[in-house]
Amino acid sequence: MEWISLATQLFGSGHGIRADGDFLQGDVVFEGEHVTVIGTTNHAPIGVKLALAQARVVLDTMAQHPGRPILLLIDTQGQQLRRRDELLGINRAMAHLGTTIDVARRRGHRVIGLVYDQALSGGFITSGLIADACYALPEAEIRVMRIPAMARVTKLPEEKLAALSQSNPVFAPGVQNYVAMGGVRALWQGDLPAALRDALRHTPTEDTRAQDGAQRGGRRLAAPVVQRVLDAA
Known about the structure:
By secondary structure, the chain is an alpha/beta fold. It contains 11 helices and 9 strands.
């Protein structure tokens, strides 16, 4: 879905969200409550400039509007693969973005992620996966890497990984598999304002992804391992 269509469905034609290149930003009013919207479009690669721009808005929201909800609109192909960004410290810029989102959550800002198009790799990890919860549209595409790339990294045959992906969501791309693993809390279908309203009101502030993955059968061992570590602490 195009971001303009999404914004219009959520907030009406006078939504006030604007695009600066691949960067989306806006102060919208949703059912009488102000919400800060930050996002990306055009399958944006997240480089130093884009990561810092998003972090700046999160910091400004914390400073100027304590407790205001933050909605992250996600459409990214992952981190920017350029020498310039590597030399400028893209790892630190993306870590800074993730840290600002985490601090906002700890200070009482409800942070909601929504994958409306594409979410890959580090660009997704430092945004939607750090929010209180991440949601997605049914047509969205989510993955860490394609099976051929996974085969190169793991040194396992593509055929074996393809077979594993049929029964284990960890090895398979696709939004439904991320729902099964708990990485995506739910899909937004039909009435999008109602879905946002429910997310703002009922999304838990504690991390329930491991428990959700266990209950849904897509990530069976994370929750028990976490509990064993807590019991041993």
